[in-house]
Amino acid sequence: MPYSRGSELSMVYDRARTSGYGFVASNITETNILTGLVRGAERVDSDLVVQVKRDTAAFAGNGDPVTGLDILATHVEKLGEDADVGVFLNVDHVPADDRAFLESCIASGGPSSLMVDASHEPFEENVSRTRDVVEMVRNREQDMLVEAELGMIKGLEGGVETTEAYYTDPEQAVEFVDRTGVDLLAISIGTEHGVSKGRDLELRPDIARDVGQALADHGLETPLVVHGSSGLSDSQVGDLLSTGVCKLNKNTRYQYEFARTACEFYREHESSILPPEGVDDDRQGFFGDAEWSPNKREFTPHRVCREVQDRIADVMAEVATLSGSAGESLYV
């Protein structure tokens, strides 16, 4: 089906919010993760929101984030065209002061949505910078949603570490949405970026509920987002979704699953790749003078990448079922 844009994504979020389920928006740091995510989403009939950050785009573009975003967006678009569910792309955590990359994201028209991050700035500056991005998108008449963040979330994100956090104030959230016109609002309720253990977090689902109610009381039907959901227990995810949050961001889990799967595979097949004791490590001659030789069936990148794709597909099916998006695709 056609790769989906902002207007379709808005419909997906509205249905999730009114029906009481959510989406685990999944960051892709490598294309095999993307392939696995699409496969897993199709398996359980869940629409899929994938996310790319600036550092990932820069890596894909050999240091150039604009080139990298074009590469990854094209990859997402082509896989989305062949998928049986809706596939959407969000550009995640773009610093508000990175004007060049922001303008490139918007001008490309590729992403379904864009998350502009000025949450570390004072409130008025956050409002000003966020509103500026919203106006840029609308002035160009791009079919693209804008997400912004109010509140500070601890942890490492995009190479920047935040050591302090503060919870989002409901009335301030109303003012922020009203003045900026953002389509989605990421709030701080005690989650953390990076590796965290849910039991160690001071989660405040009540804040999400209060923010959602305050917005509704002012006639604002703005979907809420929670960043940093890796490490949360099933019950904690359920608590958050019961408050009206319809988008939970997950990144670290997929990176770990990639590394863990590759590590286990190469441990199991070490004897097919590394020369045994007593055999010279003749990489240049490719062990032409030795009785032993590596097994191409095991060292070809496709072999381990297929394992990674399968594992990521399993994880995606699992988290979609947990979040309630399984079986809810608008396109099935």
What does this structure look like?
With 332 residues, this protein is an alpha/beta fold. It has a single domain (6-252, 313-323), classed as TIM Barrel. Residues 154-163 and 193-200 have low confidence and may be disordered. It is elongated and about 75 Å long. It has helices at 6-19, 31-43, 54-60, 65-82, 99-108, 123-139, 170-180, 205-217, 234-241, 252-268, 296-299, 301-323; strands at residues 23-27, 48-53, 87-95, 113-117, 145-150, 155-157, 160-162, 184-187, 224-226, 245-250. The longest helix is centred in the C-terminal third of the chain and has 23 residues, at 301-323. GO terms for molecular function: fructose-bisphosphate aldolase activity. It comes from Haloferax chudinovii.
Beginning-to-end CA distance, first to last residue: 10 Å
The CATH H-level superfamily is Aldolase class I
What is the CATH class designation?
A: Alpha Beta
Strand order of the largest sheet: 1-2-3-4-5-8-9-10
Tally of DSSP helical segments: 12
Task: Describe the largest sheet.
Answer: 8 strands, parallel, barrel
Approximately how much beta-strand content do the residues carry? 15-25%
By CATH, the topology is: TIM Barrel
Total number of β-strand segments?
A: 10
* Cα radius of gyration in angstroms: 21 Å
The CATH architecture designation is: Alpha-Beta Barrel
**Percentage of residues assigned to helices:** 40-55%
Structural class: alpha/beta
Characteristics:
332 residues, alpha/beta, TIM Barrel, eight-stranded parallel beta barrel, two-stranded antiparallel sheet, 12 helices, elongated, FBA_II, EC 4.1.2.13, Class II fructose-bisphosphate aldolase, Fbpase2
